[in-house]
Amino acid sequence: MTTRIGVVTFPGSLDDRDAQRAVRLAGAEPVALWHGDKDLHGVDGVVLPGGFSYGDYLRCGAISRFSPVMETIIAGAREGLPVLGICNGFQILCESHLLPGALTRNDHLHFICRDQRLRIENADTAWTGSYEAGQEIVVPLKNGEGGFVADERTLDMLEAEGRVVARYLEVNPNGSRRDIAGITNEAGNVVGLMPHPEHAVEPLTGPTTDGLGFFTSILKKLVNA
Amino acid sequence: MARVVVDVMLKPEILDPQGQAVQRALPRLGFTGIADVRQGKRFELEVEGPVDDAALARIREAAETFLANTVIEDFTVRVEDK
């Protein structure tokens, strides 16, 4: 049976097509999900893509978090449904309280777009099993509100429980606390990531193909389950 | 109709780069003596019916779940005199 991964389109999503493409290149079947439709159409996992859902009004991800599809995704994620939130998707996961902390305005106030070196810190999540812990990858990063913040106690807890999934190397591009680029929930099925692995899946269009691992990871995880 | 104002501000410990940029721009424009600027959001809610304790409690709930992200923001709720 083919593994089916849903990719949600919100009004203002930008990277839903690239995420679908990455899912396909990894060998799974992408399924387009619509923000206004509660039905997940039986998918095995969900990607919340990047973009500016609802124009980033109020706060990034704050309105999307209450969309009909998110109601089902939040309930599913608590039961173990694998969910990967990229950029705006990460913001939505934090606003949904599926992940702790929040994403705030870059400390230097500029939108940033660069090829970013990362270190995969946790290779045991549903979305990072294709990597080795400590592996360095380069994928595009593009955000205006990508600064990860949380109180010291939450940061210490994330570190102690190995829930920092990826960390920025060389430069901290947005003021994220402790160079955090991505985190996971306690169960490891929900991962939020500020950089964009879905833009690094083909040599023609990406700086590398390092991002493909996030999508092959979920395939491997679901096939072995 | 009564107006209820919800003010949302970043918590003191959260960096406010927008406020800092405003603060740095002020002296260039000749507005000296301003040591710090914090930037926030103000919501004006026009409420149908009486603004009693129950109505205010609902507005506080709306502020807590939606208007503010209490991970990084504090809010205040007050009835505005007209």
From TrEMBL, chain A:
<dbReference type="GO" id="GO:0006189">
    <property type="term" value="P:'de novo' IMP biosynthetic process"/>
</dbReference>
<comment type="pathway">
    <text>Purine metabolism; IMP biosynthesis via de novo pathway; 5-amino-1-(5-phospho-D-ribosyl)imidazole from N(2)-formyl-N(1)-(5-phospho-D-ribosyl)glycinamide: step 1/2.</text>
</comment>
<keyword id="KW-0436">Ligase</keyword>
<keyword id="KW-0315">Glutamine amidotransferase</keyword>
<comment type="subunit">
    <text>Part of the FGAM synthase complex composed of 1 PurL, 1 PurQ and 2 PurS subunits.</text>
</comment>
<dbReference type="GO" id="GO:0005524">
    <property type="term" value="F:ATP binding"/>
</dbReference>
<dbReference type="GO" id="GO:0004359">
    <property type="term" value="F:glutaminase activity"/>
</dbReference>
<keyword id="KW-0658">Purine biosynthesis</keyword>
<dbReference type="InterPro" id="IPR010075">
    <property type="entry name" value="PRibForGlyAmidine_synth_PurQ"/>
</dbReference>
<dbReference type="GO" id="GO:0004642">
    <property type="term" value="F:phosphoribosylformylglycinamidine synthase activity"/>
</dbReference>
<keyword id="KW-0067">ATP-binding</keyword>
<feature type="active site">
    <location>
        <position position="198"/>
    </location>
</feature>
<protein>
    <recommendedName>
        <fullName>Phosphoribosylformylglycinamidine synthase subunit PurQ</fullName>
        <ecNumber>6.3.5.3</ecNumber>
        <ecNumber>3.5.1.2</ecNumber>
    </recommendedName>
</protein>
<dbReference type="InterPro" id="IPR029062">
    <property type="entry name" value="Class_I_gatase-like"/>
</dbReference>
<feature type="active site" description="Nucleophile">
    <location>
        <position position="87"/>
    </location>
</feature>
<keyword id="KW-0963">Cytoplasm</keyword>
<comment type="function">
    <text>Part of the phosphoribosylformylglycinamidine synthase complex involved in the purines biosynthetic pathway. Catalyzes the ATP-dependent conversion of formylglycinamide ribonucleotide (FGAR) and glutamine to yield formylglycinamidine ribonucleotide (FGAM) and glutamate. The FGAM synthase complex is composed of three subunits. PurQ produces an ammonia molecule by converting glutamine to glutamate. PurL transfers the ammonia molecule to FGAR to form FGAM in an ATP-dependent manner.</text>
</comment>
<dbReference type="GO" id="GO:0005737">
    <property type="term" value="C:cytoplasm"/>
</dbReference>
<feature type="active site">
    <location>
        <position position="196"/>
    </location>
</feature>
<keyword id="KW-0378">Hydrolase</keyword>
<dbReference type="Pfam" id="PF13507">
    <property type="entry name" value="GATase_5"/>
</dbReference>
<keyword id="KW-0547">Nucleotide-binding</keyword>
From TrEMBL, chain B:
<protein>
    <recommendedName>
        <fullName>Phosphoribosylformylglycinamidine synthase subunit PurS</fullName>
        <ecNumber>6.3.5.3</ecNumber>
    </recommendedName>
</protein>
<dbReference type="GO" id="GO:0004642">
    <property type="term" value="F:phosphoribosylformylglycinamidine synthase activity"/>
</dbReference>
<comment type="similarity">
    <text>Belongs to the PurS family.</text>
</comment>
<dbReference type="Pfam" id="PF02700">
    <property type="entry name" value="PurS"/>
</dbReference>
<keyword id="KW-0658">Purine biosynthesis</keyword>
<comment type="subunit">
    <text>Part of the FGAM synthase complex composed of 1 PurL, 1 PurQ and 2 PurS subunits.</text>
</comment>
<comment type="function">
    <text>Part of the phosphoribosylformylglycinamidine synthase complex involved in the purines biosynthetic pathway. Catalyzes the ATP-dependent conversion of formylglycinamide ribonucleotide (FGAR) and glutamine to yield formylglycinamidine ribonucleotide (FGAM) and glutamate. The FGAM synthase complex is composed of three subunits. PurQ produces an ammonia molecule by converting glutamine to glutamate. PurL transfers the ammonia molecule to FGAR to form FGAM in an ATP-dependent manner.</text>
</comment>
<keyword id="KW-0067">ATP-binding</keyword>
<dbReference type="GO" id="GO:0006189">
    <property type="term" value="P:'de novo' IMP biosynthetic process"/>
</dbReference>
<dbReference type="GO" id="GO:0005737">
    <property type="term" value="C:cytoplasm"/>
</dbReference>
<keyword id="KW-0963">Cytoplasm</keyword>
<keyword id="KW-0436">Ligase</keyword>
<dbReference type="InterPro" id="IPR003850">
    <property type="entry name" value="PurS"/>
</dbReference>
<keyword id="KW-0547">Nucleotide-binding</keyword>
<comment type="pathway">
    <text>Purine metabolism; IMP biosynthesis via de novo pathway; 5-amino-1-(5-phospho-D-ribosyl)imidazole from N(2)-formyl-N(1)-(5-phospho-D-ribosyl)glycinamide: step 1/2.</text>
</comment>
<dbReference type="GO" id="GO:0005524">
    <property type="term" value="F:ATP binding"/>
</dbReference>
<dbReference type="InterPro" id="IPR036604">
    <property type="entry name" value="PurS-like_sf"/>
</dbReference>
